[in-house]
Structure formats: structure tokens, C-alpha cells
Amino acid sequence: MQLHFLIDGKELHISGSIGISLFPNDGEDIWTLLRDSDIAMYHAKKNGRNNCEFFKPEMNRQAKERHSMEVALRNALKRGELLLHYQPIVNINGGKADGFEVLLRWQHPDDGLIYPIKFIRLAEETGMIIPIGEWLMRQSCLQIKAWQNQGYEVPRLAINLSAIQFRQKIIVENIVRILDKTGVKGHYLTLEITESELIENVEETIKTLQQLSELGIEISIDDFGTGYSNLSFLKRYQINTSKIDRSFVRDIPGDPEDTAIIDAILVMAHALGLEVIAEGVENEQQLAYLVLHGCTRFQGFYFSEPLPATEIEKKWKIRGYSLLTLIS
Ligand code: G
Ligand code: G
Ligand code: MN
């Protein structure tokens, strides 16, 4: 039974999460038993709270792995093990890359190249995402500057922003500082955020997006269609582009449900004056379907995988950064 308390006219509930360790199997002294029950309690909280969990030896292994990953990630930034790859966003009108998405990589000393899917969550949970995100933005701006100095016509770089970064009170201030320090204009940047970042603190979010827009920065909705299903944010906020999630692109043109979803997104976005980028385009059949249905901007292995800056430059040097260069 859950009791509730009425405080200031609000109904408050208290629930308990319990971790259990057993003598002598889980430990023979009080400190080991306490540590193990603590680990089990965190599992209980993670599994939805208000329940209990018995300690299992693999919980300890997971906790150790997490801890060593956390220490390694803290060092990664200091030791220069983080690096950036760039994936072209191609526009068939003009046949040029009109943007690059910046994707974070971690060159781990023992485990090789690690993708963000393995460490972004940990970076968010430990707060490391803040210094990593600032490093990434500064690094991206320095890269823009370097390319400009070499005479390239640099398109916008699209940077993924995690919810934790976006909700920072000083996010705009930080961006302005980085732009000033590196001498890069806001209209060289796009920020990619996900739908879920837009549902909380509506007033605050409107203000933040307005300020970013005044700096010339564009906003893309990443993984569009996979998050929050309330579409009213599309008219409420200053948004430029929606990126169709690659899970919808994967099985077209064969899958009638996916084609229906893609058709609907394209019609709606264009009616609202939004640009659309289809993600995860891997073959000609997918591209043909998308083109036929009015999509003009694409990203995916069909054109290019994410590459280091030096590889991107090689493609640039061949024939300007054109569609032909990308496909051949
Ligand atoms: O190329 P890839 O496997 O690296 O990216 C996997 C996921 O990680 C993508 O969903 C992408 O949005 C996210 N990601 C890549 N780089 C960054 C980053 O710099 N910051 C954040 N928050 N997410 C990123
Ligand atoms: O969620 P986000 O859109 O930021 O994801 C970018 C991720 O998609 C990166 O991990 C990138 O490596 C991956 N990616 C880019 N193009 C393709 C593609 O054509 N197919 C697949 N399967 N993944 C892709
Ligand atoms: Mn993205």
C-alpha cells in the first residue's frame, strides 16, 4: 500500500527501493554485504523504483566495468583521445554537400575506436557531456576556420546536442563565447536536438531557440518521428529542419508502412516550411523513392560514411565536393 501526504495542496508519494545481499554467499563481513546491497539497490531504482532486487555477482562486474569506463572517459578528454568524424549531408539541388554532421569518436588506447552509442549515455550520467560537448563545439569551430583558411567553401556543420547540454541555463552564453573566441559566425552551425528535449520548459525553450536563431544558428530535429508524438512543437518553435530517422528509411520502398510514414512526414514538413533530411540512405532504391516523393537532402552510407577531416579534404580536392565525387 502506498501512503500519500498532502503538502501545500499537492499530493506527494514516497516509495522505497530495496537492495538485498545475503550472508554468507554474497559476503562474509558487514562491509561487503553493505556494498553489495547498495549495488543491488541501484539496480532496483534503475528498474523503475518502488521494488527490491537481490544482489547478483554480475552486478558487481557491471559496476566495475562502468567505473573503469568512467575513469577512462575522464582521461580521454585530457589525453586527446576524442576525435571527430564528418558525414556529408547532400543536396540534390546543385548536387553538393550542403552540410556535414559532426560525429564524436573515442580512440581508446586498448579497445580501439569506440562509437558514441557506447559512451554518450555514461557521459550524460556523469556530467562529462558538458566539458566534452564544449570541446566538441570549439573543435568544430576550429575546423571550420582551418578549412576556410585553406580556401574551402565550408558548409554548415551539424552538431548533436544532448538534452543535458540543451537544458543548461548558460548554453547560449557558452556558444557565444566559443563563436567569439574562434571567430566563427553562427550561420556555419546547425544544432541537432531530439523531440524529447522540446517538451519540457516550453517558455524557456522558445527563448533559447529564438536566441540561437538570432545568432544565425539553425535547429534540426534529430531522429524525427521516433520520440514524442505531440506535433504542436513544430509550429511553436523556431525549427529549420527535421531529419527522418533511419529506421523509417531502412525498408523502403518495400515496406508500405514505412513509405506511408515517410510520405506523411514529407507532406507535413513541406506544408510547414521545414526542410527535410532523410538519414541512413544506403542504396539507389531508397534514394529514388525519396527523390520521387519530394525529398531533396540526404545523409547515409550511399554517399559517404562519417570520415576524418583529412579524408573529407581529399574528396573536396578531387572535383569540388559534388554528388559525383561522393558516389564514385
Ligand atoms: O556515428 P554514430 O554511431 O557515431 O552516432 C551514434 C549516435 O550518437 C547518434 O545518434 C548521434 O546523434 C550520437 N552522437 C554522435 N556524436 C555525438 C555528440 O557529439 N554528442 C551527442 N550528444 N551525441 C552524439
Ligand atoms: O542519430 P544520429 O542521426 O545522429 O545518427 C547518426 C548515426 O547514423 C551515426 O552513428 C552514423 O554512423 C550512422 N549512419 C550514418 N549513415 C548511415 C547509414 O547509411 N546506415 C546506417 N545503418 N547508419 C548510418
Ligand atoms: Mn544526429
From TrEMBL:
Top-level taxon of origin: Bacteria
Domain annotation EAL: ranges: 66-320
One matching Pfam family: GGDEF
A molecular-function term among this protein's GO annotations: cyclic-guanylate-specific phosphodiesterase activity
Transmembrane segments: none
Domain GGDEF: residue ranges: 1-57
InterPro entries xref list: Cyclic-di-GMP_PDE-like (IPR050706), EAL_dom (IPR001633), EAL_sf (IPR035919), GGDEF_dom (IPR000160), Nucleotide_cyclase (IPR029787), Rev_trsase/Diguanyl_cyclase (IPR043128)
Alphabetical list of PROSITE patterns matching this protein: EAL, GGDEF
Family annotation (PANTHER family): CYCLIC DI-GMP PHOSPHODIESTERASE PDEF, SIGNALING PROTEIN YKOW
Record's protein name: Two-component system, chemotaxis family, CheB/CheR fusion protein
Species, as recorded: Nitrosomonas ureae
